[in-house]
């Protein structure tokens, strides 16, 4: 797959998707968002069981929406522009495979919103994050007002969004935004190791788990439990369940297809 602003490579079922506009700190313009959506549509046809998302260069994961591009947008296109980003990030969020955000530098505005659309975040110790939209007279438009509060709670989401300040990675760990903060040189190795573990798990069970957590999040508890029952039944009827339980009983590693 060839893109102008994304690089993709894969090995042993682990894919790495790199946002690749280092001169603009990997900022998101319409072309990048459209390429992300195309990439997500192609994922089921790729031989990939786990995806790592990162940014090119050593300075930025993604420094947000392309501010120069935004400056040229007519007011009438504002809603469509926000929706364009939301649809691309939703496609990423709904991928059937696990997705790790390897945040290697600035994750600002749309960049933080991108990371929040992945299943979880690992940050390098020199990464910085924030939602600076209020400093531009804007609000987050690619899902940030919704996903940040779901991830860290409303108080911290209010704090990050209203201050518009840029925060060091240690706060991501403290606030439960990132699952780990590691030395910059170790970031990709740590993520690849985690991806290898995920790639060895049942892809059916991971997909159903992702759906149960994501789709259940907005439901009342009893409806969420009902959803869990329905998805549990699907897992129970799967070939992976037969293999996983047989492997346990036979004291061997499961060989999930
Ligand atoms: N868009 C376009 N270009 C950018 C962006 C960006 N978001 N960020 C950096 N760049 C460019 C700079 O303009 C500069 O280019 P040039 O060399 O041609 O002048 C190059 O990248 C390097 O950047 P700096 O020289 O500024 O590097 P510094 O190390 O001095 O600063 C910062 C790094 C702190 C990251 C700084 O670049 C910065 O503040 N960037 C903007 C961050 C920001 O505000 N992001 C939020 C954008 S708004 C957003 O994401 C809204 C999402 C929802 C949109 C909804 C649509 C309707």
TrEMBL record:
<dbReference type="GO" id="GO:0006635">
    <property type="term" value="P:fatty acid beta-oxidation"/>
</dbReference>
<protein>
    <submittedName>
        <fullName>Short-chain-enoyl-CoA hydratase</fullName>
    </submittedName>
</protein>
<dbReference type="InterPro" id="IPR029045">
    <property type="entry name" value="ClpP/crotonase-like_dom_sf"/>
</dbReference>
<dbReference type="InterPro" id="IPR018376">
    <property type="entry name" value="Enoyl-CoA_hyd/isom_CS"/>
</dbReference>
<dbReference type="InterPro" id="IPR014748">
    <property type="entry name" value="Enoyl-CoA_hydra_C"/>
</dbReference>
<comment type="similarity">
    <text>Belongs to the enoyl-CoA hydratase/isomerase family.</text>
</comment>
<dbReference type="InterPro" id="IPR001753">
    <property type="entry name" value="Enoyl-CoA_hydra/iso"/>
</dbReference>
<dbReference type="Pfam" id="PF00378">
    <property type="entry name" value="ECH_1"/>
</dbReference>
<dbReference type="GO" id="GO:0016836">
    <property type="term" value="F:hydro-lyase activity"/>
</dbReference>
<keyword id="KW-0456">Lyase</keyword>
């Amino acid at each position: 797959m060839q893109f102008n602003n994304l690089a993709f490579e894969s090995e042993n079922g682990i894919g790495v998707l790199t946002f690749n506009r280092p001169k603009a700190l990997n900022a998101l313009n319409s072309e990048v968002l459209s390429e992300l959506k195309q990439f997500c549509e192609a994922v089921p046809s790729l031989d990939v069981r786990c995806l790592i998302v990162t940014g090119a260069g050593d300075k930025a994961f993604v420094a947000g929406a392309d501010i120069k591009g935004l400056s040229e947008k007519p007011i009438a296109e504002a809603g469509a522009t926000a929706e364009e980003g939301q649809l691309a990030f939703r496609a990423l969020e709904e991928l059937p495979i696990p997705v790790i955000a390897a945040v290697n530098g600035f994750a600002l505005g749309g960049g933080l919103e991108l990371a929040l659309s992945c299943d979880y975040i690992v940050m390098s110790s020199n990464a910085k994050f924030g939602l600076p939209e209020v400093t531009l007279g804007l609000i987050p438009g690619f899902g940030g007002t919704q996903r940040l509060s779901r991830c860290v709670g409303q108080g911290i989401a209010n704090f990050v969004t209203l201050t518009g300040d840029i925060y060091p990675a240690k706060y991501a760990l403290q606030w439960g935004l990132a699952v780990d903060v590691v030395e910059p040189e170790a970031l990709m190795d740590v993520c690849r190791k985690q991806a290898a573990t995920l790639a060895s798990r049942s892809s059916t069970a991971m997909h159903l788990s992702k759906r149960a957590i994501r789709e259940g999040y907005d439901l009342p508890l009893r409806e969420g439990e009902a959803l869990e029952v329905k998805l549990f039944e699907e897992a129970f009827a799967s070939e992976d369940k037969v293999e996983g339980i047989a492997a346990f009983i036979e004291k061997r590693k499961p060989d999930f297809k």
